[in-house]
Amino acid sequence: MLRGFYTAASGMIAQQRQQEAFSNNISNANTPGYKADQTTLHAFPEMLMNRIGGKGNQISVNSSMQFPIHQSIGALNTGVYVQETIPNFRQGDIRETGSTTDLALVNGELPNQSANLFFTVQNEAGEVRYTRNGNFTVDGQGYLVTNQGYYVLDQEGQPIQTNGMEFTVTANGMLRTPEQTAALNIAYTPDANNMVKEGNNLFAGEVDEMPADVTFSIKQGFLERSNVDSLQSMTQMMESYRMFETNQRVLKAYDESMGKAVSEIGRLV
């Protein structure tokens, strides 16, 4: 009976973690470049239950020697858990904003479905991070930054000086001002699933040199929207909540059975 408690409780914990992922997706449905989280459930190992001994479950060698035989009862499931949460890197829709500081990174030819491209930025600790959110602005010193104030880096790994809002970005990622030209550092990874999601729409991980056959384009005055499907996320959240309630009822039934075992079956007559 105690195993039933653990099985039902593990189901409730797994559904709670799914609820958290779905809630986070819905809250970021309007965040540019946001990649929806996907959870994967995995079952704990099954246990094969056998009955040993008992009447009719023995084999006799002679009158003085008897050996118990195993009678298979069946498999016992021990619950589920959330194995991992991984982002869905499908590209979001592109919408026009008209702002010169908004940049949309549009994927072209990629070698496989797992490959992806990112803008390169520098966080407050001076570490290189990657993002699909091109909702940039210009800070007080004239540098191109994210809304959190992180520097957007060029191919030399340096912050990009724009000296104001008057700049243009070509389709191949060249940022031009009246004073200078800089190339946006577009990072390439052959497997985006290896990237680690951090806060503020940033990713950490290793990137490779961009292959010659990879193509992309930068659209100035546009943004990549979040790839969250709000309707689907709401439906999944409701399904997860129903599963949580089901496990909760199972746990309550086990609790009532345990109470009867203690107060009634175990009562001395």
Description:
This protein is α+β, with helices and mostly antiparallel strands. It has helices spanning 2-27, 230-265, and strands at 37-43, 47-52, 58-62, 65-68, 70-76, 80-87, 94-96, 103-107, 116-122, 128-131, 136-138, 144-146, 151-152, 168-169, 174-176, 181-183, 186-189, 196-197, 203-204, 216-220, 222-224. The strands form nine sheets. Strands 9, 10, 13 and 17 form a four-stranded antiparallel sheet that branches. Helix 1 (2-27) packs antiparallel against helix 2 (230-265). The radius of gyration is 29 Å and the shape is elongated. The protein starts with a helix and ends with a helix. One of its GO terms (biological process) is bacterial-type flagellum-dependent swarming motility.
Considering the chains and any ligands shown, give keywords for the structure.
2 helices; 23% helix; alpha+beta; 269 residues; 21 strands; bacterial flagellum; elongated; Distal rod protein; single chain; 4-stranded antiparallel sheet; Flag_bb_rod_N
Short synopsis of the structure:
It is built from 2 helices and 21 strands.
What is the helix fraction of residues, given as a range?
A: 10-25%
Shape summary: elongated
Secondary structural class: alpha+beta
Strand content: 25-35%
Number of strands: 21
Distance between the termini: 24 Å
- Report the radius of gyration as a whole number of Å: 29 Å
Order of helices and strands: HEEEEEEEEEEEEEEEEEEEEEH
- Average of the residue pLDDT scores: 87
The main pleated sheet reads as: 4 strands, antiparallel
Unreliable sequence segments: none
Q: What is the tally of helical segments?
A: 2
